[in-house]
Structure formats: structure tokens, C-alpha cells
Structure prediction request, 221 residues.
Amino acid sequence: MQVVLFDLDGVIADTAKYHFLAWKHLSEKIGVTIDEEFNEQLKGISRMESLERILELGQKSDQYSLVEKEKMADDKNELYIELIQTITPEDALPQIPQVLASLKDKEIKIGLASASKNGPLLLDLLGLTEFFDCIVDPTSVVAGKPAPDIFLKGSELLGVQPSQCVGIEDASAGVWAIKDAGMTAIAIGDVINLAHADKVLSSTCELTSNVITQVWHENHK
Prediction:
């Protein structure tokens, strides 16, 4: 194992609530009602794909031009950026700073493979930027999750084969992306929804560098 690629939302920090508030605000403006259950469908996918799902829910998919949709997505992101300004290093999920430090000590490279274009900003707010050897720009890949592109780009940037990587995700789409990239997948969350991962942990409290290494070794016996 040479590399660990992390998703951000729900793995490094719990930013889903901020995404939900921003999407809810936008949805109400166009007459669509979403709840937290629906918001689960938006985890791990791109901003435009999220917007398309909201418009489909409200049967409004054909009511807006591409330019109008891009403006909506930009408006949502501006509100999201306002909301996350209150994030501090204390908002990192349990064990994450310790896991990152331990991986660094073992000279294992670390990458961020998040669908969020705000990854660099969030890592700065969390005080974790120094741990990352690469941050994959989601705009640099052709297809978003569940396509494997963003994870494959991460392994490419860090100069390793996909088989040498572990990906860590909390969304089903992200786990499929890791597996389709030919990597070992560790999921954080519900064991039923994420059963296609190589290992499912109930929370980041169970995540350690030793666990990550062990899961990779078990997957390569």
C-alpha cells in the first residue's frame, strides 16, 4: 500500500449539513421541497448532478436553460461557502487528524478525491492541508462519481498503480468509484448501504492507519 485517497464530506469533516442548508434554500426559491432523507441522494455526486436530481424531484428538469442551471449551482455554492466559514480544526471528524499524522509518519502518500470544488478551502479551514500530497480538482476529470475517474486521477498524480491505493468514502457512489478504479475501499457509515466496500466502519472513531493497512493486506492475499 502506497497511497490513501480520502473523500472529504462525511469522511474528513461533516459538511453535509451545510450542503443541505444551501440546497434547501435554493430549492425553496424554485418551489421544490427537499428533506434530509432526499439529501442522502446528493452525497458524493457533483453540484450539477445534485441540481438535476432536485429539478427532477420537482418535475422542473425542462424549465431551465443550461445557463440558468449553472447560475443556480453557483448561487448554491456561494451560500455554502458563506456557511462553512465558521468551520475550525475542531470540526474535523474524530481520529482524522491522528490518522493523517500516522500515515505521514509511515511515509504513505495522502490524496483528496472529493467531488467538492471547495476541497482546498475546507482543508485550510480544518488546518489539514499540510498532510495532503495532492488534491484532485474535480473539474479535471471527465466523469464524476460513481465513475472511477477522480480516484484514478489521484493515483496518477501520486505516481502509483490503483492496486496500491486505498480509498475512503461515506457514499455509495464513492465506494463504487473506488472499486471500479481497482482500489481497496473502506466505507464510513451504514453497513447495508455500503456493503460493496471491502470494509465498513460505523464511524471514523474506528479508523486508524493500522486498520487501513490491514484491510489492504486482506484484499491482496
Summary: The chain has a mean pLDDT of 93. The radius of gyration is 17 Å. The longest helix spans residues 66-84.
